[in-house]
Amino acid sequence: MELLPQALADGVMLGGIYITIAIAFSLTYGVMHVIDFAVGEWIMFGAFTGYYLNKWTGLDPFLFLPVIFVAYFGVGYLIQPVIHRVLSGTKGNPFLMGLVFTFGLAIMFKGLALTVFGYYSNSIPSMFSEGAFNFDVFGAAVTIPTVRLVGLAYALAITAVLHYMLKKTNFGLGVRALAQHKDAAGLMGVNSRRTGSYVYGIYVGISAMTGVLLGCILSIGAQMGNEYTIFAFFVVVLAGMGYLAGVPWAALLLGLVQSIFMIYFNPSHTLLAVFVILYLILLISPRGLFGKGV
Amino acid sequence: MKVLDVQSISVKYGDIQALWDISFSVAKGQLVALIGANGAGKTTTLKALCGLIPVAGGEIGYNGTVTSGLPVHKVVDLGITLVPEGRQLFPKMSVEDNLLVGAYLKRTHSKRSQTLKKIYSIFPRLEERRTQSAETLSGGEQQMVAIGRALMQDPQVIMFDEPSLGLSPIMVQEVFKVIQDLHREGLTIFLVEQNVHQTLKVADYCYVMENGRIVGQGTGKELEADQSIREAYLGF
Hints:
The complex is a heterodimer.
Chain A: H1 4-32, H2 39-57, H3 61-87, H4 94-117, E1 132-137, E2 140-145, H5 146-168, H6 170-180, H7 182-187, H8 192-217, H9 225-239, H10 247-264, H11 270-284
Antiparallel strand pairs in A: 1-2
Helix pairs in contact in A: 1-5, 1-8, 1-9, 1-10, 2-3, 2-4, 2-8, 2-9, 3-4, 3-8, 5-6, 5-8, 6-8, 9-10, 10-11
Chain B: E1 2-13, E2 16-27, E3 31-36, H1 42-49, E4 57-62, E5 65-66, H2 72-77, E6 80-83, H3 95-101, H4 106-109, H5 112-122, H6 124-128, H7 139-151, E7 157-161, H8 169-184, E8 188-193, H9 196-202, E9 205-210, E10 213-218, H10 220-225, H11 227-234
Parallel strand pairs in B: 3-8, 3-9, 6-7, 7-8
Antiparallel strand pairs in B: 1-2, 1-4, 4-5, 9-10
Helix pairs in contact in B: 3-7
């Protein structure tokens, strides 16, 4: 039992990271109805951008977050029309074509990264990398590295900003309308193409920022994306496809399951355990934890 | 003065032609109806008018501007709107949010709280249910939201696609009353209905559609007197 508080704390920290990976991914699915398999690669590109910016300027990677968001927002905004074109085709099965297209993007990006960055694994040094907070919970010692706490704060901030945008702004109203009924949203004057581009841009921007964070907390490498694509997918399916409000809870659950399994059972089988749990939950509730997915 | 001027438009779904050479016009302040059997192309005509589907030929004019070829969000910004078939509300959003989406456009956004008040005075029931999600409303209430949402756009022309479909007889009367009130206030209305008898009574002018073509036109009285129309649509 001594390890339980530490396991729970680790799980919450990990879950926080998963929130940021999955929340914008879920929003994009809700609006564009495409599962973007390249989510991990956006994270990877963001991480490398942070890594090199830090190397060249010597400034703290956290200072670059806004710059990286803006740059990758632009990338996403420009790429979205291509995906939109694939999805709005009339021949064959556009949904499947969209899946294959983003899958192809992911493979291409990964290949590109391996060529340019190589197989090395690195981490990004930050002013938060060193310190840690020590707590004493009912006699058990709990250590939380500062960088993980910063990561959790970042996750909460992203969630709060997205929530505000969706619920309180006119743009968010349009996004929600578009996600629920495309034609009717058009009749209300929502420009579905441009709104889709904005949403995709926001998603790519957030993913890239998360990459920098992951580079500070864990490590970066050209193949780091694989894992995060799987986790993003896991969280979004568990939350219910397109059900945004479920994402934070599903992400926390994933983090907790992982950290508890790692401490009490076999760390090398964590992913297996995670998928068994996902399978069981979907067996009972096929539309996700809350039964509100698509 | 013609507000809507449709000149020989045709629409194709892939290789299948749905509309052939449709022409008609609607004058300012008129209530014009389009009647016809299921599958005649009425909904397709409305969708083409508001830019939801592209036209393969012909031209749609609105107040002197050509709107065919414009995307739907640009067309509605000009002041034409559609209350679509089956309501097409945003099911998970509250009644109030559904109405507020109606004021999404810049042109209407600044005065949205006043417009909302006006909508609530027309449909007091919606104010009572403003926090409820749209999917929990009855069919009649949903139709009120759909009409309210369209009115939030401050349109000059409002098109209705089968507004009485699936409603109880009392609600049908209610919906027709609202449409007539809007007409009296000076809105231009283009109405597509299956409820031919009632439609002929309220409309200033009617067009009859069959297999993707306009096959007849006239005032309500003229059409009611027409033997073939009576047999086909009124059943006597």
